[in-house]
Write a structure and sequence with these properties.
The protein is 49% helix and 10% strand. By secondary structure, the chain is α/β, with parallel strands linked by helices. It has two domains: 9-173, Rossmann fold (3-Layer(aba) Sandwich); 179-373, Dehydroquinate synthase-like - alpha domain (Dehydroquinate synthase-like, alpha domain, Up-down Bundle). It has a six-stranded parallel β-sheet with strand order 1-8-5-4-2-3, with helices on both faces. A two-stranded antiparallel sheet has the order 6-7. β6 (144-149) and β7 form a beta hairpin. α12 packs across α13 (306-319). The radius of gyration is 20 Å and the shape is globular. The N and C termini lie far apart (41 Å).
């Protein structure tokens, strides 16, 4: 048995940003965004459309951390009349907005829920309108957020069915002007989301169809976009793919490639989209033979010979400057085995349909990790 559910209302296309006032519909709102000059101009456009927000949180940082989120959340205590949160930015902005939406001005309730999985019924959920400005995270159509605790050296996932955004306003024009490195990392993040939703114990035929479309679109459009960053057509293709990837993993969560990435991001500062994608060819090799609709889906993406497909994916990554080895990202060889063991033991690792033994076999055969050094 399987089921699929996603309640987010999606407005998509160039110029869709102009619909924001209709979506806000006169409600008193808070605006969450980045502290960068392009977002100052977007903030002015929001205010011109919908009037001034009750509160602006414009100091969101990448990989939102407990300490900053606690300070930001407390600002809501002085604005009890807020009815809605508008999140304008990338995944860190949308994830932060979900934390604020659930916290009711008190971050300690979020910390308790993250660490104990208790108190979910006490969370006070405000509606969120998510406006992504990168094509990658898919947070605009999922019910969870990534929260980091640098002090604990941990990454948490805030997951609650009421945290699906009320609306996702996806305008490819907002992605124009994004630099090469950010475009690449977010595009690979979307590819990882789509593939991770396939080799997943929670996969279903609907999520697989979204994932196939997303993956095929990314593999065709992303290399072209990297040579033509000003193309609205290609930006639109990548927005479409990122949305489909989000719709896919909104019902499955991610799997082993993401669990491998978290300590690499936290410990060695590797950008999330790179950290969660460089192992994808190895994971693909390790799931050959899993059968059922999952393997059929992978063959719709990579062709009937998945080994050849993994080789082509590796070649594409090399052309894009993505290293294949853990040590390419500064991870000491002797720590790789520990990272792998812990990743397979974690929640996202347990979502994976494959096995650690086959992953390690593929990784060692293709010189991704040296077990003798671990």
């Amino acid at each position: 048995m399987w089921g699929y559910q996603n309640p987010v209302k999606i407005a998509f296309g160039p110029g869709a940003f102009s619909q924001l006032s209709d979506l806000i519909a006169g409600r008193k709102y808070a605006l969450v965004t980045y502290p960068e000059k392009p977002f100052d101009e977007l903030t002015r456009q929001v205010e011109a459309q919908a009037g001034a927000p009750q509160l602006i949180i414009d100091d969101v940082a990448p990989n939102p951390d407990y300490q900053l989120l606690e300070t930001q959340t407390a600002r809501f205590t002085h604005h009890n009349d807020i009815e809605l949160i508008v999140a304008l930015g990338g995944g860190s902005v949308i994830d932060s907005a979900k934390v604020f939406a659930a916290a009711n001005g008190n971050f300690s309730t979020i910390a308790r829920f993250l660490e104990t999985k208790q108190g979910g019924d006490t969370l006070s959920i405000l509606p969120v309108i998510a406006i992504p400005t990168t094509a990658g995270t898919g947070s605009e159509v999922t019910s969870w957020a990534t929260v980091w605790s640098d002090a604990q050296g941990k990454k948490y996932s805030l997951a609650h069915q009421q945290l699906y955004p009320e609306s996702a306003l996806i305008d490819p024009e907002l992605m124009l002007g994004k630099p090469y490195d950010l475009t690449l990392a977010t595009g690979l993040d979307a590819l990882s989301h789509s593939l991770e939703s396939i080799w997943n114990i929670n996969a279903n035929p609907i999520s697989a169809r979204y994932a196939i479309t997303a993956s095929n679109t990314i593999l065709e459009a992303l290399p072209q976009l990297m040579s033509n960053l000003g193309s609205l057509e290609l930006r639109t293709e990548m927005c479409t793919a990122a949305m489909y990837a989000g719709l896919a993993f909104s019902n499955t969560k991610t799997a082993i490639a993401h669990n491998l990435s978290y300590p690499i991001t936290q410990g060695w500062g590797v950008q999330h989209g790179i950290a969660c994608s460089f192992t994808l060819p190895t994971v693909l090799r390790s799931v050959i033979g899993i059968g059922d609709f999952r393997e059929a889906a992978l063959k719709e993406i990579f062709g009937p010979d998945l080994n050849d497909g993994a080789d082509r994916l590796s070649s594409l990554f090399a052309e894009l400057g993505i290293g294949a080895r853990f040590t390419d990202y500064g991870v000491p060889a002797e720590q790789c085995k520990t990272i792998i063991d812990e990743a397979f033991a974690g929640e996202r690792g347990r979502n994976f349909i494959g096995s650690k033994d086959k992953f390690l076999a593929a990784a060692t055969e293709h010189n991704i990790v040296e077990l003798s050094a671990a």
